[in-house]
Structures are given as structure tokens and as C-alpha cells.
Amino acid sequence: MEKAPGTGNCSRLRPRRLELRRAYRSLRSAHRSHKRRVGRSEEQAARNESVFREANEGIAARRAELGAIEGGTPFLCECEEESCTELVHLTPEEYEALRSEPNHFVIASGHPSRATKNIREGDGWTIVAKDGVAGEIARETDPRRGG
């Protein structure tokens, strides 16, 4: 019986998946080490969200290097809570659509956000748009636009 193209890569993908899982754990661990601040300003919250976005860009880049892996990729929730370690799963296409706008962020459903509107909802996540000070910071710090 002949194998379908691309199905004989399991042993080659296993070490890569393990490497990707280690990268996620490392990012989550670093994220947990942040101390929670009370009464953060809108600017502080926006900067925190931008840090998560930058970490997710690294995850997306590593995901692209690995090639075809079935299912969604786990990304960090980009909510304003420094202590959040929730993961959201997006396909590469969903992630690229999210990143098409510098003021869009993905947060786990029900997580805090000072966003002006919800753009799209998925399975356990919501894409939100930031305006005002938070939107300006999002544009300034967007890694895809030299921020």
C-alpha cells in the first residue's frame, strides 16, 4: 500500500514538536515570573499586550520553520494581565489575519481587555481592536512594522 505524500515525516516531526513545546514552556515560565501590578494605566496595559504579541511572533516564526503540522498552534493570550498564562490555538491563516492590523490582539475568551471592539471570535479566543493610547502604542511597537 502506498503512503500519501507527506505522511512519512512522523519521526522527523517528533523532535521538532518537542522543541516547539520546550519553547512554549520557556515563554510561559518567563511570563509567570512577572509580578502582577495593581491599577495599571492604559499605557502599561498596552505595553504588556505588545510584549505578548512579540513573543507570539517568535512562536509563529518557529511554527513556519517546522512546516506542516496538523491543528492549531498554541499562542499566548495577549490580554493585559501580566500573570496570564492561557494559551489560545489558532491556525497559521487565523494568526496572519490577526496580524494584518497592528492594533489587533488575540485574547482568551472572557479575559480582560480595554479594547474598543471585538473583531472576531473563535474557539476559546477573541480578536480585539485597540484605539486611543493603546492603539498608538500597538502601532509603535508592532514588530512587523519596525516597532
Structure description:
The chain is α+β, with helices and mostly antiparallel strands and 147 residues long. The protein has one domain (10-145). Helix content is 44%, strand content 16%. It is built from 4 helices and 5 strands. The protein has a 3-stranded antiparallel sheet, with no helix packed on it. Strands 1-2 form a two-stranded antiparallel sheet. β4 and β5 form a beta hairpin.
Can you tell me the overall shape? globular
Please trace the helix and strand order, writing H or E for each element: HHEEHEEEH
First-last Cα distance: 52 Å
Helical proportion? 40-55%
Strand content: 15-25%
Number of helical regions: 4
Largest sheet features:
3 strands, antiparallel
User: Ranges with pLDDT <50 over ≥5 residues?
Assistant: 32-39
**pLDDT average, as an integer?**
78
**Tally of extended strands?**
5
Number of domains: 1
Q: How large is the radius of gyration? A: 16 Å
Structural class, from helix and strand content?
alpha+beta
Neighbour order of strands in the largest sheet? 3-5-4
